[in-house]
């Protein structure tokens, strides 16, 4: 193992890091944030979903009325096909 080579690398690293310390003091430390247009679109979409109701009352009201009147008809073949496709 060559310890001399390690010492030389360490000396170079220390010398260069000291130079950067002085330069970083001149830099203004201000954080900024800028959202891309895609990010803005995603935020708008998320807000629209959050504001939308979980239950579509117009659809539920029609189905509820049919069930209460006894006029809601279920196609057994379609129901079986959908049930089997989920399994």
Could you characterize what this model shows?
The chain is built from four helices and no strands. It has 87 residues and is mostly helical. It has one domain.
Index terms:
mainly alpha; 87 residues
Instruction: Summarize the main sheet.
Output: none
Q: What is the percent of helical residues?
A: over 70%
Cα distance, first to last residue? 64 Å
Q: Mean pLDDT, rounded to whole units?
A: 81
Q: How many DSSP H or I helices?
A: 4
Tally of extended strands? 0
Described by the principal axes of the CA atoms, the overall outline is elongated
Order of helices and strands: HHHH
Q: SS-based structural class?
A: mainly alpha
Q: Radius of gyration from the CA trace?
A: 34 Å
User: In terms of per-residue confidence, which ranges show pLDDT below 50 for 5 or more consecutive residues?
Assistant: none
Taken as a percent bin, the fraction of beta residues is under 5%
């Amino acid at each position: 193992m060559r310890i001399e080579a390690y010492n030389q690398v360490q000396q170079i690293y220390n010398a260069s890091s000291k130079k950067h310390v002085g330069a970083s003091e001149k830099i203004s430390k201000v954080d900024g944030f800028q959202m891309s247009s895609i990010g803005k679109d995603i935020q708008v979409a998320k807000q629209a979903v959050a504001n939308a109701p979980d239950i579509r009352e117009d659809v539920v009201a029609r189905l509820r009325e049919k069930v209460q009147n006894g006029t809601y008809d279920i196609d057994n073949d379609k129901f079986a096909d959908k049930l089997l496709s989920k399994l």
